[in-house]
Amino acid sequence: MKIAIAQQNYHIGHFEANFGKINAAIEAAKAQQADIVVFSELAVCGYPPRDFLEFSDFINRCQAVIEKIKAISQGIAVVVGAPTVNPVIEGKDLFNSAYFIADGEVLHIAHKALLPTYDIFDEYRYFEPASEFKVVEYKGKRIALTICEDIWNIGNENPLYKICPMDELVKQQPDFMLNLSASPFSYDHAVNRLHVIKANTDRYKVPVFYVNNVGAQTEVIFDGGSIVMNGDGQLIEELPYFEEAIHYYDLDAVNNPAPADIKGEQAKDKIDLMYRALIVGIRDYFGKLGFTKAILGLSGGIDSALVMALAADALGAENVRAILMPSEFSSDHSVNDAVKLAKNLGSPYDIIPINKAYDAFNETLKPQFEGTTFNVTEENIQARSRGLILMALSNKFGYILLNTSNKSEMAVGYGTLYGDMCGGLSVIGDVYKVEAYALSRYINRNGEIIPENIITKAPSAELRPNQKDSDSLPDYDELDKVLYHYIEERKGPKELIEMGLRETLVHRVLRLVNMNEYKRYQTAPVLRVSSKAFGMGRRMPIVGKYLS
Amino acid sequence: MKIAIAQQNYHIGHFEANFGKINAAIEAAKAQQADIVVFSELAVCGYPPRDFLEFSDFINRCQAVIEKIKAISQGIAVVVGAPTVNPVIEGKDLFNSAYFIADGEVLHIAHKALLPTYDIFDEYRYFEPASEFKVVEYKGKRIALTICEDIWNIGNENPLYKICPMDELVKQQPDFMLNLSASPFSYDHAVNRLHVIKANTDRYKVPVFYVNNVGAQTEVIFDGGSIVMNGDGQLIEELPYFEEAIHYYDLDAVNNPAPADIKGEQAKDKIDLMYRALIVGIRDYFGKLGFTKAILGLSGGIDSALVMALAADALGAENVRAILMPSEFSSDHSVNDAVKLAKNLGSPYDIIPINKAYDAFNETLKPQFEGTTFNVTEENIQARSRGLILMALSNKFGYILLNTSNKSEMAVGYGTLYGDMCGGLSVIGDVYKVEAYALSRYINRNGEIIPENIITKAPSAELRPNQKDSDSLPDYDELDKVLYHYIEERKGPKELIEMGLRETLVHRVLRLVNMNEYKRYQTAPVLRVSSKAFGMGRRMPIVGKYLS
Q1: DSSP states along B354-399
Q2: Helix-helix angle B270-289:B302-315, to 10 degrees
Q3: Is B328 helix (H, G, I), strand (E, B) or coil?
Q4: Phi, psi of B211 (to 5 degrees)
Q5: Are strands B141-147 and B176-180 parallel, antiparallel or unpaired?
Q6: Local structure of A99: helix, strand or coil
Q7: Which of A21, A498, B182, B315 has minimal Cβ neighbours within 10 Å of its Cβ?
Q8: Do A493 and B56 lie within an 8 Å CB cutoff?
Q9: What is the predicted pLDDT for the residue at A469?
Q10: What pLDDT was estimated at residue A453?
Q11: Mutate which of A382, A515, A517, A543 to disrupt the B interface (most B C-beta within 10 Å)?
């Protein structure tokens, strides 16, 4: 039996495009005489469709795609993810399902039992969990169908669910398991994924064909990395990251592989993976919204330099326009460094001083500001004048403005709402400052793109004379450590202090994080590369009084 | 047996303040010789605590409050909501629980079984559902404890859950039921709530003491309206809306009420309820964040006029500062009408023309804009210059800026990101334009506060000569009808057209709504007054291609 795995990049709600991709893969699989072609979770509508699922019109359109797939399934079995309507009155209205279609008929529909409802996931918002489990028979083989999370509940110290679908399915003696996934990237996810597949083959002793989604949907990035592993726990192949691919496997060769059948796994360097994820995140945000060109403010600092280099790699350097907006507080090296970066990349740039706008606001507000002194207000006027100029260029010429705030700044609120926090997409809002340095060095791995001076100089917002980040923030190494353990690890103040972090620092940082929830609420979507990004995966009350 | 109901306004994570309120109510109940005092769902930490629940430190602090409550429970039973740790390894780590504490001991802990996970609710994100149900015995009475949603699954055509906790509890022959709720306001919720309580007493024939939360937590508003109904379905009392209250009931008098025991229900006028909800929403947002003063841009149009009148009622007119920012496109009547409103209210106001800022940006961007013509870019520069001025005043003097966008505008993207969409709180982002008119007339019910001319003139953004909203938008009556059925009722295009709405209008409006998701993503929290508000209760993909 020949099995095809189709690792594809769908577009939420774009039924024509998604069917086009599925159709092309079915044609290719037929040409290769495959018996079965397997697609990923909710392939017909893209994942996560979120509240579109509450529209019966949306569900009907998903069903219309299933009908079209049935019509082209002559001579091949197609396994594809789609939402289905729960026929029982009690419970949620939908299931998250896997269709098994062959020769124009639906032979089986399996429903997902374990519905992730944590971090970015809201599946129990929409779906009823499966309560029945049945293998499907096809061409003399018994096949267990599972969907993503269904196989993630084993081998954990603290399992999230009370059941394991495969514990039921294995009683029906399946010959192999197909898993349809939409399992998002984080820089440590690929390792976990391999462990989970291995835990399944160890326990159930059947081959697993794990088919993941690839590409980005707003903030959520899928890395692909689909997996074929046999019942002895031998990794046959891990498919490429961040690319579409259709690969074919002979079941006998999977069960008893010759050395040449074993393709092995992909390299897993954290910074390389983050880089590639961010490139896909930018590219798909623009591509799926129908935009080609980006604009950003280039300050001469490391964050905007990194975002520009990433955007140039994602969109083409000629499609990224840098705007340098010096003020009276800008140092010469800032402009020079920024110009050098734009020239290194070969991207267009403009120098647009903000002094006229800044003066006009100071003049306009003179009667109201009489008797007050320069403070954060005037700093914010500069940042917001820059934001306004960038948005004006964006509106006039059809750019998407890229936000350049990093995760450390966003965490402690070191940024101006409607100023440097403007933008349609936050590229590095899930990248701590120390990781921004590592990514910049990675970008320079084959020669200088980001000028060395940008990487080595002390960070400064340059909003008042001789300002340095270190005037108002702790050292980034120390800050990022507190932030990581608080945000990613959810440690409280007591645990952080017990880890050896300074008590005054811990209290100050946690207070800043919680006080600034209102700023993050209004931030652009953040490309998610860690296990806990700001945005839909981290939901905090603004009026909360905890640790603030 | 004497039962006290404590309808209180908690502050999420503010354990000292919450315990202070609970303590005061226990003292009061003891003074009244009550046998039991009942508080609302998750009273110790406030509802909804959201991802604070993922911090074990947060859970420990909740438990510390329970310990303090135990210490003051001599001679009285206290029933209070708090999260508890699930001792079973499998499943979610927490339960949403009701403690029954008396004389320093925990006599029983009941867990919530039905976990709302839709709209603004994320309970299955955190909590494991109860699987065991037991009445608690106290002073010879058998008491069924339920939590909010637990009693909402009966009498529905399409029940969300497969079980009914009271179906189990009633087998143990309870004498009455206590329900601890945190059930948010929407303008049609109070009617539904009474129906649900009635459906419960009809089915189970036992008295229900339903204790709701009151007050606002960021966008979510609780109206109180706690209910006492006897086993014959007689409404004994519906507690006041939007106020804290402790009321006392003798169980015998509830079971066999004299005419004087029957206090009946509150009036339920939609616009009056919306008005009162918005007042509480503003007041608690400011109060819980520790702010007293608001600022807003007053354009002379109805939306900002309505927001200003609401803010004046919520915070005191002297604490609301209006900024009039005319441009060359502003009409005389706009400034005159706005001044008149500020004078009617007795609020401070400034007139700050934006021409200097507008000219400075046009001058600054001249090289880049060479050869282009006036379009939405220049309109946005005006809106953003206003936003910048308002934020500068907010930063300098410690105001919270109120956003004045209505739901119709927000839906179709008729507003400028970082311009008129600025603000810490969206006051009327869940109020359709036609409802904004009704609210304005309500505010004028005892005499003119909002000048009549503001209510009767044709709406205009005044961002280009002689502009009217009707130049770019359909008539608001028609627009709001499409929006309501699409947003609140989740009808698709086919259903909307079948309702008799114009086909071209339907397609245009749905496309505008979906195309502008990116703007709403960056909007301030919206006070929720309908059953489907923008924000945490409506989760849409930005890159979605559905109907756009």
Answers
A1: -HHHHHHHHHHTHHHHTT----HHHHHHHHHHHHHHHHHHHHHHTP
A2: 60
A3: coil
A4: -110, 115
A5: parallel
A6: strand
A7: A498
A8: no
A9: 86
A10: 96
A11: A543
3-state helix, strand, coil in chain A (%, to 5): 40, 20, 40
Measured in degrees and rounded to the nearest 5, phi and psi for residue B97 equal -120, 160
Contact state of A543 with B285 under an 8 Å Cβ cutoff: yes
Residue A463: what pLDDT? 87
Check CB contact under 8 Å for B91 and A54: no
Q: Are A528 and A186 a contacting pair, CB within 8 Å?
A: yes
- Omega prior to B48 cis, within 30 of 0: yes
Per-residue pLDDT tens for A490-532? 999 999 999 999 999 999 999 999 999 999 999 999 999 999 9
Beta pairing class for A77-85 and A36-38: parallel
- The token pair at B546 is 């559905």
Distance CA B197, CA B235 (A): 9
Looking at this protein, which amino acid is placed at residue A308? M
Of the pLDDT bands very low, low, confident and very high (cuts 50, 70, 90), residue A467 is confident
Instruction: For residue B360, list chain A residues with Cβ-Cβ distance below 8 A.
Output: 356-357, 359-360
Neighbour-count burial for B172-211, b at 16+ CB within 10 Å, e otherwise: eebbbbbbbbbbbbbbebbeebbebbbbbbeebebbbbbb
Catalytic residue among B62, B123, B128, B148: B148
Binary contact (A364, B353; C-beta < 8 A)? yes
Given a cut of 90, whether residue A447 has pLDDT beyond it is yes
> B interface mutation test: which of A14, A418, A425 has the most B CBs within 10 A?
A418
Give me the pLDDT at residue B472, please.
83
pLDDT of residue A471: 85
Contacts of A543 in chain B (CB under 8 A): 11-12, 216-218, 284-285, 288-289
CA distances from A485 to A373, A469, A488, A492, A509 (A): 38, 22, 6, 9, 12
Q: Do A158 and B89 lie within an 8 Å CB cutoff?
A: yes
pLDDT of residue B155: 78
Burial of B371 (0-12, 13-18, 19+ CB in 10 A): exposed
Domains annotated on chain A, with CATH: 2-266 (3.60.110.10), 273-469 (3.40.50.620)
Nearest to B545 among A12, A365, A493 (CB): A12
d(CA B527, CA B405): 12
Contact at 8 Å (CB) between A404 and A431?
no
Show the low-confidence residues of chain B (pLDDT under 70). none
- Identify the helix (H) or strand (E) that includes residue B98: strand B94-102
Any residues with CB less than 8 A from the CB of B260 and at least 6 apart, and which?
none
Q: How many residue pairs bridge chain A and chain B with CB atoms within 8 Å of each other? A: 269
* pLDDT at residue B157, rounded to an integer: 80
Burial degree of A427 (CB within 10 A; 0-12, 13-18, 19+): buried
Cβ pair A365:B389 closer than 8 A: yes
pLDDT band at A175 (very low <50, low <70, confident <90, very high): very high
Q: Is the reported ipTM for this assembly greater than 0.90?
A: yes
- Residue A525 pLDDT: 98
Distance CA B8, CA B39 (A): 8
- Give CA B321 to chain center in angstroms: 24
Cα–Cα distance for residue pair B92/B129, rounded to 1 Å: 9
Among the partner residues B417, B491, B543, nearest to A288 by beta-carbon distance: B543
What amino acid positions of A are annotated as catalytic residues? 41, 112, 148
- What is the pLDDT of chain A when averaged over all its residues? 97
What's the average model confidence in pLDDT over A97-108?
98
Query: For position A202, what pLDDT does the model report?
Result: 97
Query: In angstroms, rounded to a whole number, what is the distance separating the alpha carbons of residues B401 and B390?
Result: 7
Cβ neighbours of residue A260 closer than 8 Å, sequence gap 6 or more: none
Q: How far apart are CA B215 and CA B10, in angstroms?
A: 7
